[in-house]
Amino acid sequence: MKQKTCFVLFCVISSINVAISVESFPVSSRRHNGRDNLKLFVFGDSYVDTGNWPKTYGGSWHEPYGITFPGSPSGRFSDGRVLTDYIAGILGTKSPITYLGWKSGEKKSVRYGMNFAYGGTGVFNTFVNQPNMTTQIDYFQQYVQQKKIPLNSSSIAILSVAGNDYATYFTSNHTLKELPDLTKSIVEQLVSNAKRIHELGVKKIGITAMQPIGCLPQFTVSTSYQNCSDSGNSVAEFHNQVLVESIRKLNNETDTALFVILDLYKAFSSVLNLQKNISADSPFSDSNIHVMVYREFNGGDFA
């Protein structure tokens, strides 16, 4: 089972690697092309949290988390690296220090940026008592205004959030009938958050599409983990369609594509062999979006 799990995780990360750097040049050359000062700022949930939960009550600080990387629990909700670590590596930089670590006096610089993400959080308040994305951005804004975080033309932000908003919604006895309004609220707030981060000085912003949540264990347990839930995946697909349209509209308001989507749905689907479930007219059926993410993050103009 562990071998199979590791294979799936490897494939997911491989797909994400292609999505961001399908035409990438070696890391060593990237670090000598004037972008060795690239800063990465991270906001969101457990997919990108590298250790912001307090050690006193964070389950991510206990085994089996961290046994693969870095060898002991590090606050990541994973036995190894999370999305932040891989994106940083693909971009030729290092995972930035956590907000909690830097605030508590950890002796690391903000040279590589800062991670404000908290596992279990969402765009709005969720079932965990940790800072939602608006509060995470408040922390970021405070440090920028205090000049504790120097930004530059190569600053990049990653926003990974929304799954926990839907989980909280459905565990609160809401119905599918109310779902469109929820999705609209979530995406509108996501767009507002992205614009706010950009206005604070971050030049490029990547927002993750929602993964096929119908393939999560809680949705597949009824079939002994053999089949994904179509209704669960339809929630993710609808969210992603609204998100794509909103980001396209946002980019049309600017001279360049400042906001890009990291297609986690397609990455997971390729691993789970779900491509046949993606409609031909879905915005996520176009592999060009993978090239676009690379060009915007790694080959584009950061001026």
UniProtKB/TrEMBL annotation:
<keyword id="KW-0378">Hydrolase</keyword>
<dbReference type="GO" id="GO:0016042">
    <property type="term" value="P:lipid catabolic process"/>
</dbReference>
<dbReference type="InterPro" id="IPR001087">
    <property type="entry name" value="GDSL"/>
</dbReference>
<protein>
    <submittedName>
        <fullName>Lipase, GDSL</fullName>
    </submittedName>
</protein>
<keyword id="KW-0443">Lipid metabolism</keyword>
<feature type="signal peptide">
    <location>
        <begin position="1"/>
        <end position="21"/>
    </location>
</feature>
<dbReference type="Pfam" id="PF00657">
    <property type="entry name" value="Lipase_GDSL"/>
</dbReference>
<dbReference type="GO" id="GO:0016788">
    <property type="term" value="F:hydrolase activity, acting on ester bonds"/>
</dbReference>
<keyword id="KW-0442">Lipid degradation</keyword>
<keyword id="KW-0732">Signal</keyword>
<dbReference type="InterPro" id="IPR036514">
    <property type="entry name" value="SGNH_hydro_sf"/>
</dbReference>
<comment type="similarity">
    <text>Belongs to the 'GDSL' lipolytic enzyme family.</text>
</comment>
